[in-house]
Design goal:
heterodimer, A: 522 residues, Rossmann fold, 2 domains, 32% helix, disordered N terminus, B: 293 residues, mainly alpha, 2% strand, globular, repeat (chain A), membrane (chain A)
């Protein structure tokens, strides 16, 4: 077994990127980045969203030409004209958003662009055998004949890895590879990566999650605002040190969360049955009760009814049957405006399509859904001055960093966009808050802020329903945790008295047979 | 009723379907590569005119055939340049080509022969009996060829990739632009053949606007056929049969509104694309570009 910290002493680093500078009009995306990756190691590249990780990889793959800096691959100067050449030099990319074709088979996806034989005819049988053998060799269990669209996300990712290996890559770059995986799938991915490393492969693991750095990497390079701020041997560093390097100041990784004092129910769903967009049953008799003064976390793997649940509670989708009560009103099937009037606020999971109008200024985004509020309008007239003043105040209180209230939402970073939505929704002082993926794609600094806001809302007696695919977020914030699987709640746990493993098993559908009595973990 | 379901009805169906098959196979290739093609009508018109003009000057319909294909390929190159290289709007480009397809032949008719409505009579492509010309079997053979190319060749896999997910295709080094150009130009060649079929196969002259919407019907056939070659063939035969039936009904003086029969396939197409009958499944990358800019 190759020991990661001691690669062949004579071997040059697989990748050396020294003093990389890449400027775009108005932005310096990479401002002097050094990254040295040794053969046979798993090297984490840690940085917040927008720190310059993707730009750096695009520079490496020849999609961008660096303005300054030196790139060496295996000790030889390298300036690739495009991904093709980078692949030829043994680099392989596993994209965050898979570059795969759903309608193709596994084999077709793997061989695409390098179909092997030189004849006109496509020999599928031979290709399937080759791909099957390769999958076997690396322990990447996947049926080469399966249609990609039929595979779960974790398997699709294996197809991407398999493709990189098929193309002859010895150095794999994985861009935020755990974003869409269940905890169990993450473990399987780690196992695959370890196996690859033992086989002499090198891995660059791009992430913004500290937990993953500790779990998988041998060394870690941290970048902040386009600059390398440090490279550490993972075993010799700590999460707080890495967080501080990454953010540039001390970060409170765990939210201060005094015990909750739940009050009366504020949002109740009874036996909800909802059909999904493709006509499939999405919720099959779901019950939940959200109380004032608590954060109720709903965890589960994407696609188990989360979207439909949120949309139903927000009034965007009508349930086939079942009831929704908000305070003492029956609000089943009412539209979003009625729900907002009744005291519901909603942080949507898709801030670009649902949360904001990107080409509107911040003021008008603050106004969205609030046109009836007396503070903003008189009769049919919008009070521009008041709107401007309130927007300024919200920007200050919620730390939305933008040049002016007239800036278009599109120009803001993801974190600032999210803070703007939260500002708008909390300004309404709701009774119940639906927070769907409130920190998806948001940097660490903003995550900390959002989490603090949610806890503050809880402490002010509001009910907060938190739906997230990020198990850490659920565990950190929730007072109670419900596990959503196959459109039903399959487990209820009291926070702090349940392990990740237990939740992970439930999220994967295990323990479903115990249904009937709600399983409360000890 | 014996008269009705006759050998004549079958041959008439083939006669009406053949030009649709050419244009639809072209449209299918183009759309499978991810470029919307509402310009088939224009390609057909340009092809029809050039075929008549080529036959007139070279005095052989085979030269006309080549001229028709070449002219439509030129029009298709313009379409590709606009849609692929300049990333222009594919609907606007197609509309412009269609308008040019009406206008340029009309203009040239006037300039060359001084006749506003149509070209002089030219020699026709040879027939194979039963009122069918040599292009009819060519059209029928074309379908399995397109099927083979799309599903059983490396090029076909790449064409599909370019049409399904151009960024993914580009990420594995496929030159999406090149494949798209090739497919758009091939669609010009095929639609041009369809046009030549009209002017020097079925008739023996070019008349103004003689495609009469067949290019659009071909698009409908591609959609109806769910972007598969044999499905599309079925749709063109259905449309051709409706056309043949309409003529038959008129000829026999039956008490059925012939226009209604003629319109039925299109109503059916509308129903099909609403998704009531089955899910319409177009290439996922239709109209999308390989790089975001």
């Amino acid at each position: 077994m190759a020991h990661p910290q001691q690669p062949g002493a004579d071997a040059p680093p697989v990748i050396e990127m020294l003093g990389i500078v890449k400027r775009f009009p108005g932005v310096v995306a990479n401002d002097g980045i050094d990254l040295v990756v040794l053969r046979g190691e798993i090297h984490a590249l840690l940085g917040e969203n927008g720190a310059g990780k993707s730009t750096l990889m695009n520079v490496l793959f020849g999609l961008y030409r660096p303005d300054e800096g030196v790139i060496r691959v295996d000790g030889k100067p390298a300036a690739f004209a495009g991904p093709r050449q980078a692949v030829g030099a043994g680099l392989g990319m596993v994209h965050q958003h898979f570059m795969l074709i759903p309608r193709f088979s596994v084999t077709e996806n793997v061989i695409l662009g390098a179909e092997g034989n030189s004849t006109l005819h496509l020999d599928r049988d031979a290709a399937e055998q080759t791909v099957g053998a390769l999958a076997e060799e690396y322990g990447l269990r996947v049926d080469p004949r399966a249609k990609l669209a039929d595979l779960p996300v974790g398997m699709q990712q294996r197809v991407e890895i398999l493709r990189a290996l098929y193309q002859g890559s010895r150095t794999l770059i994985l861009d935020e590879p755990t974003a869409l995986l269940t905890p169990q799938e993450v473990d399987e991915l780690y196992a695959v990566l370890h196996r690859l490393r033992e086989g002499g492969g090198t891995i660059i693991f791009i992430t913004h999650k500290l937990r993953e750095v500790a779990a998988i990497s041998d060394r870690v390079t941290v970048i902040r605002r386009g600059k390398t701020v440090g490279t550490r041997i993972t075993k010799e560093t700590t999460a707080p040190e890495l967080a501080e390097l990454m953010v540039g100041r001390e970060v409170i990784l765990r939210v201060e969360r005094p015990p909750a004092s739940p009050g009366e129910p504020v949002l109740v769903a009874e036996n909800l049955v909802v059909t999904g967009s493709r006509g499939e049953p999405a919720l099959r008799g779901l019950d939940l009760t959200l109380r004032r003064g608590e954060i109720l976390g709903i965890c589960g793997v994407e696609g188990n009814g989360q979207t439909e649940l949120v949309e139903t509670l927000a009034g965007l989708r009508r349930p086939d049957s079942g009831r929704v009560r908000l305070k003492d009103q029956d609000v089943t099937g009412q539209d979003p405006i009625a729900l907002r009037r009744a005291g519901l606020s909603y942080i949507p999971e898709d801030r670009h399509n649902r949360g904001l109008v990107l080409d509107f200024p911040l003021t008008e985004n603050v106004l969205l859904g609030n046109t009836e509020a007396a503070a903003f309008s008189r009769g049919w007239r919008i009070l521009r001055g008041a709107l401007d003043a309130i927007t300024r105040r919200l920007m200050r209180v919620f730390d939305v960093r933008a040049p002016s209230p007239q800036t278009h939402a599109r120009a803001l970073s993801g974190g600032n966009q999210q803070k703007l939505i939260i500002a708008r929704e909390l300004h309404r002082e709701p009774d119940a808050l639906l927070a769907a993926q409130p920190t998806r794609g948001v940097d660490v600094g903003a995550i900390e802020f959002v989490h603090r806001q949610l806890v503050r809302e809880r402490d002010q007696g509001r009910g907060v329903l938190l739906i997230s695919f990020d198990l850490d977020e659920i565990l950190d914030l929730s007072d109670r945790i419900l596990v959503l699987f196959g459109g039903r709640i399959v487990g209820e746990f009291v926070s702090g008295r349940v392990s990740r493993t237990e939740l992970g098993l439930r999220m994967g559908g295990r323990g479903e047979e115990e249904r009937g009595g709600v399983a409360v973990a000890d | 009723m014996d008269d009705f379901f006759s050998f004549d009805l079958l041959t008439a169906t083939l006669r009406f379907s053949a030009p649709l098959i050419f244009a639809a196979m072209g449209g299918l290739l183009c759309e499978r590569a991810g470029v919307m093609n509402i310009a088939l009508e224009g390609f057909m018109l340009v092809g029809a005119f050039a075929a008549a003009a080529g036959t007139y000057y070279a005095e052989t319909p085979f030269a006309g055939l080549v001229a028709g294909m070449a002219a439509a390929m030129l029009a298709a190159t313009i379409h590709a340049f606009w849609c692929v290289t300049l990333r222009g709007d594919q609907i606007v480009a197609g509309t412009a080509i269609n308008l040019l397809g009406v206008g340029i032949p009309a203009f040239l008719l006037q300039r060359i022969w001084g006749t506003p409505g149509g070209s002089p009579q030219v020699e026709r492509l040879p027939g194979i009996g039963a009122g069918l010309n040599v292009l009819v079997p060519v059209a029928l053979v074309l379908v399995p060829i397109v099927h083979y190319v799309v599903y059983q060749t490396r090029a076909g896999l790449r064409i599909q990739a370019a049409g399904e997910h151009p960024r993914a295709a580009a990420s594995v080094g496929i030159d999406v632009v090149r494949y798209r150009y090739a497919c758009v130009i091939a669609s010009g060649a095929l639609a041009g053949l369809g046009g030549a079929y009209l002017s020097i196969g079925d008739l023996s002259q070019y008349t103004n606007n003689m495609a009469a919407g067949r290019g659009f019907i071909a698009i409908a056939a591609v959609i109806f056929g769910n972007w598969t070659p044999f499905g599309t063939l079925g749709a063109t035969l259905l449309f051709g049969a409706a056309q043949a039936t309409r003529v038959q009904v008129q000829a026999l003086g039956l008490n059925v509104a012939p226009d209604l029969i003629g319109a039925l396939p299109y109503l059916l197409t509308l129903i099909v694309i609403t998704g009531l009958v089955r899910r319409s499944d177009p290439p996922a990358g239709l109209g999308k570009h390989a790089t975001a800019e």
